[in-house]
Write a structure and sequence with these properties.
This protein has about 120 residues and is mostly beta strands. The protein has a single domain, classed as Rieske [2Fe-2S] iron-sulphur domain (Rieske Iron-sulfur Protein, 3-layer Sandwich), CATH 2.102.10. The chain is about 0% helix and about 50% strand. The strands form 2 sheets. Strands 1-9-8-4-3-2 form a 6-stranded antiparallel sheet, with no helix packed on it. A hairpin with a 6-residue loop joins β6 and β7. The N and C termini lie close together (about 5 Å).
Length: about 120
C-alpha cells in the first residue's frame, strides 16, 4: 500500500467531499468538524453512480410514529441516483437493524487518510 500526497488541509473544506484522483481511482475525501479525514471510493456498489457527489446528511431514526431523531450529523453520504446511504467513517451501508428483510453486507471501499504537518496523504 503506497502513501500518496493529495493536498494541504486547507484544500479540504469541512462537511463536503473533495474529489481526487489517486492511483487510477477517484476518491471522495471528507473532512469532519473534529479534523478527521476519511476517503471513500467514488462508486456506489448498487448501480455505479458517483457516490461522493451525493448529499452529506445525517441518519434519521424514528423510534415511534411522529418522533424523529437525527444521528451522525454530516457523517452519511446518500447516493445521488437511488438514495442508498453509507456511513462515511466505516464505508458501511446504513440500515435500521429493527426492520429486517433479506439483506447483504454492502460496503464501499475506503482508504486510510493521514495528516502530517498540514499535508494530507491517502494510502492505496
Amino acid at each position: 500500500m503506497a502513501r500518496h500526497y493529495i493536498g494541504t488541509t486547507d484544500q479540504f473544506p469541512v462537511g463536503e467531499a473533495t474529489l481526487v484522483q489517486v492511483g487510477g481511482r477517484k476518491l471522495g475525501i471528507y473532512r469532519f468538524d473534529d479534523d478527521q479525514f476519511h476517503a471513500l471510493l467514488n462508486y456506489c456498489p448498487h448501480q455505479g453512480a458517483e457516490l461522493c457527489r451525493g448529499p452529506v446528511t445525517s441518519w434519521l431514526r424514528s423510534p415511534k410514529p411522529g418522533e424523529f431523531q437525527y444521528e451522525k450529523e454530516g457523517e452519511i453520504v446518500r447516493c445521488p441516483w437511488h438514495g442508498w446511504e453509507f456511513d462515511i467513517r466505516s464505508g458501511c451501508m446504513v440500515v435500521d437493524h429493527k426492520v429486517r428483510t433479506l439483506t447483504y453486507d454492502v460496503t464501499v471501499e475506503r482508504f486510510d487518510v493521514s495528516v502530517d504537518e498540514g499535508k494530507v496523504y491517502v494510502k492505496i
